[in-house]
Each structure stands twice: as C-alpha cells, then as structure tokens.
Amino acid sequence: MNKTARQKILDVASELFYNEGIRAVGVDKIVEVSGVSKGTLYRHFPSKDDLIIAYLEEQNESSWVLFEDAISVYDGAPRMQILAIVESIKTSLTEPRNRGCVFLNAQAEFSSQHPIQNLVQERTHKLRNLLQRLTKEAGATDDTLADQLLLLINGALSTAPIMGADIAGEQLKKVSVCLIDLHLNQ
Fold first, then answer.
1. Radius of gyration of the chain (CA)
2. 1 C-beta neighbours (distance < 10 Å), count
3. pTM reported for the whole predicted model
4. CA 68 → CA 10, 75, 86, 149, 152, distances in Å?
5. Which pLDDT score is estimated for 2?
6. For each of the chain's 186 residues, which pLDDT tens digit applies?
7. Which residues neighbour 13 within 8 Å (Cβ) at sequence distance 6 or greater?
8. Residues 87/66, Cβ–Cβ less than 8 Å
9. What is the C-alpha to C-alpha distance for residues 42 and 47, in angstroms, rounded to an integer?
10. Considering Cα of 168, then 144, then 108, then 27, what sign does the dihedral take?
11. Which residue from 43, 78, 131, 157 could staple onto 101, CB 3.0 to 4.6 Å apart?
C-alpha cells in the first residue's frame, strides 16, 4: 500500500518524536528519514507545531479507538468497562519499546502556553468524563473514584519507563480493583 506523502511524514515524525523526544527531533531529520523534500513537508505541515499537533491528534484518536473497543465488549456492565480501560492501558504499557505516555511526555517538553497543552488537557478531561460516567453508572455517589483512577492511570503511565512496564501495569490493575471494590462495595 502506498502511503501519501503526508502520512509518510506523519509516521516518521511520530516514531522519531516518541523515541527521541519532540524537541530533540528537527525538521531536517524528519525530511532525511522520510525521504521527502522540505517543501513537501511544509506543504502538508506549515510549521513543526502543526506536525506536533497532527502527531498528538493521531495518537489521541488511536487511544480512543482502543478504549471504545475495550468497553464495547462489556456494554451495560460499567464496572467491567472500567476494568477493560485499565486492562487496555496495562497492555499498552507492555508493548515493545514503550517509552511512557505520548501525552505526558509531550506535556513535559513544552511550556504551559504551547498549543499542545490544550490537546493534553482536552484528552485528560475526556478520559476523566468517561471515568466519571462509568463510575456513576457502576454506583459511585461522587467523582472521587473517577479522580483516583485517573491519578492512578497517569501514575502508571509516567512510572512505567522507570519501574518497568510489567510492575506498573500489574500495580495499576491491582490498585484499580482495590479502589473499585472500596468505593462500590459499600
């Protein structure tokens, strides 16, 4: 299958950004590795920031497809849907060459005024809203469980490269079950 020049650039940039860091990768390296001209890159992405945003948007869409697929299996069973989200994150942590969360990594590289911060915040709010909805459907009386799960998820994502993905993923699952039992078995 022939990729469009835009997709080829985005694929190369995505791999380089994730593996080496967004700030560490220059446009010249993306041009070199992708084999497209600088003019072609700038025709599709007028600035590096536009390319960064496209990268994060594509990563966001992919992660939401995973979440939606995971919870669709347990339609009508919100407790199982929460656990399915946790399991999908645990699985993503143990993928080969995992370097942590794309969004937390990007957030750490840029100031609070950079446009990527809005994307990261929107994604976090969307995940929080999903967790709030599911925890309430499962019987939670407030947002405490959703907020605790969100903190736990972000903690696992940020510590997996340090502690090891297996440990972070296993603890994410175990502590999530404990929190769910604590809040929902009252």
1. 18
2. 2
3. 0.90
4. 24, 10, 12, 17, 20
5. 59
6. 458 999 999 999 999 999 999 999 999 999 999 999 999 999 999 999 999 999 999 999 999 999 999 999 999 999 999 999 999 999 998 887 788 889 999 999 988 888 899 999 999 999 999 999 999 999 999 999 999 999 999 999 999 988 889 999 999 999 999 999 999 986
7. 25, 30, 34, 51, 55
8. no
9. 7
10. positive
11. 157
Within 13 Å of residue 155, how many CA atoms lie on the same side as its CB?
14
Domains, in order of start, for the chain: 1-46 (1.10.10.60), 56-184 (1.10.357.10)
Residue type at 20 in one-letter notation:
E
Residue 142 tokens read as 């407030």
Place of tokens 């937390």: 104
Query: Burial letters for 163-179: b for 16+ Cβ neighbours within 10 Å, e otherwise?
Result: eebeebbebbbebbeeb
Pick the closest to residue 176 from 139, 141, 136, 135 (CA basis).
Answer: 135
Q: Whole-angstrom Cα distance, residue 49 to residue 114?
A: 9
